[in-house]
Amino acid sequence: MKLNVLPTISLTILTALLISDFFPNNPFFGYINNGYVFWALLVALGVILPLSYRSKGSNSHFQRIFPLAYLVLLLVVLTLLGGESAHGFAVNQSAFWVVVLLCTIDIISIRKEKGAKEI
Q: How far is CA 73 from CA 12, 60, 99, in A?
């Protein structure tokens, strides 16, 4: 199985951003809260994510479901570890669940499109 590097890089950046958001005093991830590093990572994430979805086979179910499940799991784990988001990203926010619902609808629509093409 070929590992696509761009989604891996984007998940790594997203993980670092979320850990620094939930635990800003962490000595390892705390430097990310510096304005320049934070914005540089956000710009990199904004460039890498569209590129990773354009890559061959990006509409597979795994490549759509895994990042969403990973994000939800990461937010739950960071919350259980006692972290509190400085920017309001949390599982108890309604906007987060709206985004999860929209992503789920997107995944279902892709599955239906592929099912209709196979017939």
A: 14, 20, 15
CB distance 17 to 48 below 8 Å:
no
Nearest residue to 63 (alpha-carbon basis) of 97, 118, 103, 90: 103
pLDDT of residue 56: 53
Ordered by start, the domain boundaries in the chain are 5-118
List of residues 6+ apart from 105 with CB closer than 8 A: none
pLDDT in tens, 103-118: 788 778 777 776 656 5
Q: How far apart are CA 59 and CA 110, in angstroms?
A: 7
Mean pLDDT of 61-77: 79
Backbone angles phi, psi at 14, to 5 degrees: -60, -40
